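Thread: Newbie trying to understand structure tokens

Hi all, I'm a second-year student working on a class project, and my supervisor (Dr. K.) asked me to get a predicted structure for one chain before our next meeting. I've only ever worked with sequences, so writing a 3D structure as a token string is new to me. If someone could post the tokens and maybe explain what I'm looking at, I'd be very grateful. Here's the chain:
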Amino acid sequence: MHIDDMFENEYIWFSLHKTFRPPTNNLTTQQRREIQQILNSSLDKNQKDAQLIAFLMKKSQEEEQKDDGIMDRLEMNVTHLQGDRIEFSFGGKKNRFSIVNNTLKSAILNEHYPDDSYTLISCFYFLQDSTSEPTDRYKDEFYLHGKKMIVITEIEEFFKRINESITKLGFDPEMEPVKYYDPKTYNGPRDSLTPFDKSIDFAHQNEFRIGMRPKYFGDTNLPPSEPMRVYVPGLRQLSYVKEI
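---
Reply by user tm_fold:
Sure, no problem. This is what the structure looks like when written as tokens:
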């Protein structure tokens, strides 16, 4: 969306939350074969452990190298558990394989809802006061994607008006700063994480989010949400456009 268009026409853009998470690369057929070959080999358990750990670490490192510093691979997580073992199952109980945590750096279970087609989010960088600036890292990663930003000066009035606009559209609004957690130490059951939680690796974004869901969220007959403009009457009096 063009900043000038948003400013002149007084709206804020909302995107589907699920588009914030980079695509998950599942195991390829070849990778599944490699794991099966390890499991079926004549190696002893310790040797199999070592080969499987090496395989999984390599895949994890390849995924991390694809990160662009903006999209969070843990986005949309609702569960983040520190486990004491990892168990794999290929083709039933016969090929079940376990690794206890004392042979690993960590055994972490992540769970997210990939089918959430209803939650819409708009993201903001939160400045502590009118004279502060975003961090250098934020500028390095985000300023490459645009030349301008909208700076909201009348925050309370802005919140009031966008809350009214979202409600009129038949959605329930939710507004709060993002809370950052350390994936290496955080341990939380299902639904302990929300769209307002992110990995501490992204704390430099100092993010504030406005979220919205249909009032009848959870109704199986509810049509999926679409990315949309939410108009904020008087936005031009509550903000200004800044060159970056």
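A couple of things are worth pointing out once you decode it. Residues 152 and 239 are 4 Å apart (CA to CA). The chain has a mean pLDDT of 78. Feel free to ask follow-ups in this thread.
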